[in-house]
Amino acid sequence: MRAILERLKYNGLFVKMFVIMVVSIISVTLLTSWVTIRMSERLFMNTFSITNSKVITQIKTNFESFNYAVITAANNVLQSGSIKGFLSQGDGDSGTIETNRIYFTAIQLMKQYQANLDAYDVGMTIIGANGRSYTSDNTVWPIPKNQLRTHPITINTNAEPKRVMYQFSGGTPDSLNPVIVATKALYERTSGTLYGDLYIAIRETAFKRFYTNFTSDGNDVVILNRSGVIVSSNRDDLIGKLNVGLLSFAKQIEEEGLPYKNASVMGGEYVLLAEYLPTYDFYVVNLVDKETALEQLVNTRAVALICAAIVLVALLIVFVISKRLTRSLSLLVRQMSNVTKKNFHNYINVKGSFEVKELGYAYNYMLDELNDYVKRLVETQREQHNAELAALQMQINPHFLYNTLASIKILVQQGSKEKASDTINALISLLQNTIGNVSETVTVSDEIENLKHYVFINHMRYGERIKVSYFVAPDCLDVRVPKLILQPFMENAFFHAFNDKPDGYIYVLVSAEAGSLLCEIVDNGSGIEGLSDNGKLPNPKGGRQLFSGIGIRNVHDRIVLLYGNAYGVVIDSKPGEGTKVRIRMPLL
Amino acid sequence: MKKVLVLLLASFVLLTACSSKSDNDTSTSEGTNDTASQGTTELTAWAWDANFNVAALNMAKDVYATQNANVKIDVQENAQADIVQKLNTGLNSGTTKGLPNIVLIEDYRAQSFLQAYPDAFYDLSSVINASDFADYKIGPTSLDGKQYGVPFDSGVAGLYVRKDLLEQAGYKVEDLQDVDWDKIIEIGKAVKAKTGKALLTQDPNDLGLIRMMIQSAGSWYTKEDGTTPDLKDNAILKQALETYKKLMESDIVKVTSDWSQFVGAFNSGDVASVPTGNWITASVKAEASQSGQWAVVPFPTLPNTPSSVHASNLGGSSWYVLNIDGKEAAAEFLKQTFGSNVDLYQNLNKQIGAIGTLKAAASGEAYSAADEFFGGQTITADFAKWTEQIPRVNYGMHTYEIEDLLAVEVQNYLNGKDLDKVLSDAQSQAETQIQ
């Protein structure tokens, strides 16, 4: 997990780039497919509606020609005196022979009229007010004649005797075949008296032949009557069902003259085309199931597969290219991040693309510059420091000289020539050793000699109440140390350690310890108040009789500057017991 | 880079594979009948008369289905005229689309189909044994020695009478065992006088009664060759027409216009008798309230005609297999059912009163059983007895064509035209039309 996160961190750019590309490619693909499919859908729907409205016109023509045949048959029946006689005459009106003749003629005529409708597979029935009837084919609509007189179909027909009506019957108990019955009331032209009814029944299975050629899966035709009952459909499950919703759509299409309408009916999305058949008082509705139609148009599976393949290929290409692009960059980043604190020497292997190479060159050049600059800075600082020390070293305190010379004068006046002479010698040696290059080193023995001169002068000036002893290991005598490295501490001990005490002593110990030179200046004075824990001396206040500008606070800095952090000054002091200064330097 | 190339190539192959797949989806056209050899075979059968032929076919279908689940038979009821018209249309146009595998054809018409469309029907000679069936059925169902039809029901005719009405008029069933039509008319008048009911129904467009009359005397509309009209100078026909006119003039006939009125008339008790084929039994028995009131008596003879016997025939039909896909399966179906299954015929007889023409079936117990509806009369045995007496005639090809002409002339005759003139006119018209 960590490793993955680590990898991700360095591949962040790649991951981001790749994710963006993935999202873009997928969304572009999806959007393009969607828009294309939408466009082709619309185009398809438009074309489809044009074709289907032609189809509907053709269906309408088929219906019209059937209607024409029905009307012709109905007119023939209506105009036939023989049939009128057959249907209106009473049973007792004539003898058997005459009745026989009437029956014969009427049926012959009916058969003749029926012949006009032979193409349509219909059953013709006439039924008279006198109870006589004739059916050409009782299997089409096997309804008992006694029921027919009071059947709703008859009642509807008789209500509008002048019209040929098309009505739907869901079948009879004997035969569940739905039928469409064209009916016509037979009436006396002059008096208007009804004498019978004509029924031309066509099985729904035959009726649907007018349009089933044009239907297909997802392209259904439904014939609705005025009340919304589906009288015929290529989908058998719909026949006889009431569908008011569909009817209202059909009416809307018809009234508003819409070419087609998208609607949600019967639990699906359909494109509806409708046409009103005025002669039938039916609506022909063409239902195009969008889903099925478009499934035929758009092979969703193929589109999806093609899209997926394109996306996959594109992603592979993007993956490879962006991986190549970012690999050198992430390598660069990894190398750069290896540059640790204070280590500016981590140069980069320059390789990869042009941009990355340039970046690498620039980085390396910058490191060069940086190192160069640091080196120069260190050099400058060192020089500056040396200059500073030199300047300080040159500043032999005039007070010291004045006081020393004043003491010598007094010694001369007192006549102690010997002492005066020794003091002048000590001062001369001291000044001789002090003046000169500050960076020059002297041997420990020389430094101790200097120290002794300084102590001698001080003894001359202030008396010998402070005793000074020197313990120098013989193997350390030739070790070289910076000039005036011990003098400031001796000075400090003289002027601060014994302010409260009448007398005391100072030891100077020089020895080699653990490969380094250890110089110790120990006094038994009053100690230093407020010494900080790190052992550094507080900054002494000015206005005293310092020998030179170099103070004790410089000593540590000088040693560190010259020899490094391993060396330096440590001060240990206890109030009332004295101070111990330890100076560690390399054995040179 | 190589990998990428391989991948691109692979995806291209995939794409082409996808796009080529969408082409071949909806090109399978479905024939109405698949080859018989594989899977489920669907057969279509046409018949008329829901109470009789269609019912018989459905029973056969059920029997067959128990042993042959892979054959589905769609039984479609159509009016006989409709079947005739559709067959003619289909066979004339040379297309067999929409035609059934099995079709029922009335014996009167059989020859007209077999001779007009010799290749349209499947030769069943090797499927059934013609000698297993009643002899008089073989003539109409075969052509040139080849057996095309599976003979089905006997059209043996009888006179169905209402015993109760006859008794009211003073007659008994025993009195009608050996009578001619003159006697029947006399009885009819008595019945009419006593009960107000007509003797029988007649549809002026259906001369079935005349056909029965002339066949009982061994005559037909055509001569023995089956093609020459035999109307003029046909003494038997002349006698039949005279009897017919006499019947009509007696005011004992209820005129009907179609089948439903015909059935309705006797079911509602409006007529005292029904002279027709035995296939009407089921329709007679359909009116259960008249149980025990019916009897069947031998068909009356034609007056003044020595050759006339107490037996005749009306209708009767046979099954034919059309020479289209599925013919083997259809033939097999007929062979196992109507062609040989004695038990089926027993059941057909018990349930719908059908009298088959398979000789083996006649010995079954159902054929000798008494029928309570007919007052315990063994009507099947009686019909079987009469069957043997039916005079053989050659129905030929033109029965109904001639009858259509004759029906018009009969009307003229009834309305006063001279009978000889009527027959000679009909003869000349028939000769013109049939040529």
From TrEMBL, chain A:
Keywords assigned by UniProt, alphabetized: ATP-binding, Cell membrane, Kinase, Membrane, Nucleotide-binding, Phosphoprotein, Transferase, Transmembrane, Transmembrane helix, Two-component regulatory system
Chief place of localization: membrane
Topology versus the membrane: Multi-pass membrane protein
Highest taxon listed in the record's lineage: Bacteria
Compartments (UniProt record): Cell membrane
GO CC terms: plasma membrane
PROSITE patterns linked to this entry: HAMP (PS50885)
Domain HAMP: 323-375
InterPro entries, sorted: Bact_2-comp_sensor_kinase, HAMP_dom, HATPase_C_sf, Sig_transdc_His_kin_internal
Positions of transmembrane segments: 12-37, 302-321
Protein name per its UniProtKB record: Two-component system sensor histidine kinase YesM
TrEMBL record, chain B:
Signal peptide extent: 1-22
Pfam families hit by this protein: SBP_bac_8
InterPro entries given in the database record: Bact_solute-bd_prot1, SBP
Keywords: Signal
Domain of life: Bacteria
Name assigned to this protein: Lactose/L-arabinose transport system substrate-binding protein
Record PANTHER family: ARABINOSE-BINDING PROTEIN-RELATED, SUGAR BINDING SECRETED PROTEIN
